[in-house]
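Q: Please design a sequence for this.
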């Protein structure tokens, strides 16, 4: 191959690989924003035997886990969270998003099939789907605008996940009645829009739950006051299950989590 052909081929490869990277990043953004995306939360406890393995074995098991995340990166986006130290029941959880629940399952089955997977117990799994807002479109304009307030930029080190199940009365209440209660719910949250970032998953029929509520914040005191405020509104009478379990943890990259587990 002469030099000029080689240069063209190399430029082509570079452009292709940059476009590919941009595509993967764009997909993550879409998966975290769009309606119609399937979310799975898989919670794990690490066996005592894992910590008795030597450092080298834990290090190579960690590399195997990393390879599984990479293998599925074109179909799922997976985020990792540390629960260890803040929960006696579980050590970490993974939040997986994709356009098909099957992709979430394939990823989690592969993760559980690794060497590390043999040392972890799957203590809970929640499944849901993201949807367009149901009540916000009928809110008064001022509240509708307030709901668009983006959370303050900057690191949010904490994660909270609260599974919720509504009672039968909630579901047989007409849309208007539920809308009035959800307006009251939203009114109680306005003070916290800047410090609490939220995401809602619908789970009816896909799990024993109706909703998975997911939050990120740097201010746990704000989150505590937010929930106290929400417990005072009428919609709260219809929460048949609130938490059980509530997951409180910290947000970490996969590399961080693996480093902590192979220390
Ligand atoms: C900054 C904090 C929060 C804001 C701004 C907020 C706002 C909202 C809004 C506007 C909706 C209606 C979405 C729609 O139109 O479909 C909603 C739904 C919901 N929120 Fe919140 N919320 C917050 C915190 C919480 C917390 C802490 C919980 C419970 C742990 C919670 C539980 C729910 C549930 C279960 C729904 C779904 C209700 C349904 O569709 O029947 N929210 N939230």
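A: Design:
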């Amino acid at each position: 191959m002469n030099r000029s052909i080689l240069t063209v081929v190399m430029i082509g490869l570079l452009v292709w690989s940059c476009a590919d990277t941009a595509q993967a990043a764009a997909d993550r953004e879409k998966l975290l924003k769009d309606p119609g995306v399937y979310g799975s939360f898989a919670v794990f406890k690490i066996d005592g035997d894992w910590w008795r393995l030597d450092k080298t074995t834990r290090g190579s098991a960690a590399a195997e886990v990393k390879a599984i995340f990479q293998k599925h990166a074109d179909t799922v986006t997976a985020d990792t969270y540390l629960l260890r130290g803040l929960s006696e029941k579980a050590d970490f959880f993974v939040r997986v998003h994709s356009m098909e629940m099957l992709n979430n399952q394939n990823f989690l089955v592969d993760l559980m099939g690794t060497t590390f997977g043999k040392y972890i117990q799957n203590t809970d799994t929640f499944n849901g789907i993201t949807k367009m807002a149901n009540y916000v479109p009928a809110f008064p304009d001022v509240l509708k605008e307030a709901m668009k307030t983006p959370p303050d930029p900057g690191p949010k080190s904490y994660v909270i996940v609260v599974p919720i199940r509504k009672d039968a009365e909630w579901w047989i209440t007409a849309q208007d009645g539920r809308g009035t209660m959800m307006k009251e719910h939203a009114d109680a949250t306005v003070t916290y829009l800047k410090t609490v970032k939220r995401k809602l998953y619908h789970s009816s029929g896909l799990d024993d739950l109706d909703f998975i509520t997911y939050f990120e914040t740097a201010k746990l005191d704000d989150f505590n006051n937010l929930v106290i405020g929400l417990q005072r509104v009428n919609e709260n009478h219809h929460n048949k299950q609130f938490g059980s379990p509530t997951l409180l943890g910290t947000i970490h990259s996969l590399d961080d989590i693996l480093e902590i587990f192979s220390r």
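Q: Thanks. Anything notable?
A: Residues 5-23 have pLDDT under 50 and may be disordered. The pocket of protoporphyrin IX containing FE is lined by residues 133-136, 147, 162, 164, 182, 185-186, 189, 192-193, 196, 198, 200, 211, 213, 226-227, 230 (CB under 6 Å).
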